Amino acid sequence: MTDPQPPDIDAELVDALIADQFPQWARLPVRPVELQGVDNRTFRLGDELSVRLPSAEHYREQVAKEQHWLPRLAPQLPVPIPAPVAVGRPGRGYPWTWSVNRWLPGETALAAGAARGGGDVAFAQDVAGFLRALWTADADGGPPPGTHNFQRGGPVSVYGDETQEALAELAERIDVAAARKVWEAAVTSPWTGEPIWFHGDVAPGNLLVRNGRLSAVIDFGTCGVGDPACDLVLAWTFLDGEARAAFKAAMRPVADDAMWARARGWALWKALVTYDSHVPRVMAEARRVVAAVLRGGLSQPGGVSSDRTEAVTTRGMSAASSRPARSSSAAPLSR
Fold first, then answer.
1. What digits encode the pLDDT tens for the residues 308-327?
2. Residues 121 and 59 reside in one and the same domain
3. Can the keyword Transmembrane helix be found in this entry's annotation (predicted)?
4. CA 80-84-88 angle, 5° bins
5. Domain of 46?
6. pLDDT digits (tens, 9 = 90+) for 244-255
7. 85 shares its domain with 126
8. pTM for the complete prediction?
9. Calpha distance 304→263 (Å, rounded)
C-alpha cells in the first residue's frame, strides 16, 4: 500500500481549507513564506497567524507532537517559539492534520546573514542561551527518539550504514581517513546522562533574528528528549570564527568533549549524505560543512585549517554535480 499523495500544497489549497474549517479566518489573505522547508509547507495567514502543513506521510506525526508540547515548553524558554492556535483536519484531497500557529516576526538567520563574515558573537551567545534553557526544561514524559524525528536524540550510529556508504562513494574526493576518525570518535562517545529536551534541527532557517539578535526559534518537528548533541551542529553548519568560539564557550558548562564529538558526527553524516545533492545550494552547503568538520581536533568545533584537507574535500566538485543525488529522510528543515 502506497502512502497517500497530497495535492499541490499551495495558497489556493490553504485558502480552501481555511474557508471550510475556520470560517472566522476565511477573509484573511494567504501567502507562502519565502523560505520553505522540506518537511512542511508554511503560509502566512493574515498578519498574525501562520499555517503549517506536512509535505509527506512521514512528517505527519510531528503535528500532534508540536500541538501538545510547544505550549508546555514555551514558558521555560527565553525567546518565543511557535504557539499553536488550532489544528486542521484532512480535506480537499489533503490527507493529514495540519496546524495554525501564531506568526512570529523576524527574519531567518539564513536570510539575514547573521554569523557571516567573521561571525556575530552576540547571536551565537543568544543561541547558546536558548539551548541551555531548553536542555533544562522539564523532560518528564517527553517524546523519545523515533520515527517522528528520524532518531534525533539517539546514538548517531543509527546512520552508520549511510555514512559508510557515503564514505565509500566519496573515497577519491574527500579525506576519508580523517572523516573515519571523526565518525569513530562520534560513535565511541556515548551519551550517559538522563534524557533531556533537544530541538533537533538548530539550523539558520529555524532561527529568527531582529536587529542581529535571536528573536524566536521555530520548527520543532524533530524535537524530543534524549541526547542533545545534535543541537550543536550549528558550530559547523553556520557559525564561524569568533562566533563559533563564543558558541562553544557558552555551551562549555553543559557540553563536554564527548558531546562535541557526537555533534561533529551528526554534522558529518548529514553533509556526507547530501554531498551530491541535485539542489545546488544544498550541495554547496554540504561541501562547506565537510570541510569545516574535517578541520581541527576531534572534539573541537574549529581549529587551524589544513590546506590538504581543504583541497581534498573540494576536489571534483564540478564533476560531482552531475552525479545522482543521495537522499536522506532527515533532510534540512526550515520555517
1. 333 333 333 333 333 333 43
2. no
3. no
4. 155
5. 11-102
6. 999 999 999 999
7. no
8. 0.87
9. 19
